[in-house]
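Folds abound. A case:
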Amino acid sequence: MRIDGEAENRLRELLHDPRWSLPSWPDAEARVRNAARRQRLRAARVTAVAGIAAVAAIAAIVVPTLPGVSPRRTVQVSTTVVLTCHDSAGQQGEDGPPARLVNGVDGFIGDPNAYDILPVQHLNGYRYVAWKSALSVAPDAAPYRAVSVVTPASARLSYGSSIVKASRSVRLPACGRRYALYVGSILVRHPACVTIAVTGPYGESITVSVPVLRSCPGHAGKRPGPNGHLAE
């Protein structure tokens, strides 16, 4: 081949090498064709990867804005919010009716009127209405009482300095010689009869139902059965 011969002769001249010391080159045209084929394959792979990345980026922007598609919500695991006596609004005596004293915690006044307009709060991408419900812990309930939502699962308790701390359970300490007052709200996503459990440090739990924009059957003071259901 003329191309091979010229390239080989030129290389031998540059290296001052006699013809018998270097092996002959393989087919130069075949090597050029193979190299070009490898370059085309690499270019095709790079183009395909870039196309996939572009489609994914466009989908991430467009899909949340399509009708009927909800934006991604932040999912958070609900934990018990632990308050201290510094979070208490002060000391007071025991409230009378319609407040209810349940396992050392006084309050649990509801609102069964479906036509009332309650403040709206937003938490983790969801819309809630807030029923303000102050609670006070009796001095003989020391060291604390845990107040927890039983049903509905979407309801939250907001006690403390910020709504972002709203949770299904809050621990309220007993402070001083009088009832320790804690200001807060019950948050619901729709009218509900909110069942709340009040639990002491040794596990004794009593439930109470609080109406929020709807009526409740009378479950105040009933203990949950062995399966967690209200005892009849």
Summary: The domain at 80-212 is CATH 2.60.40 (Immunoglobulin-like).
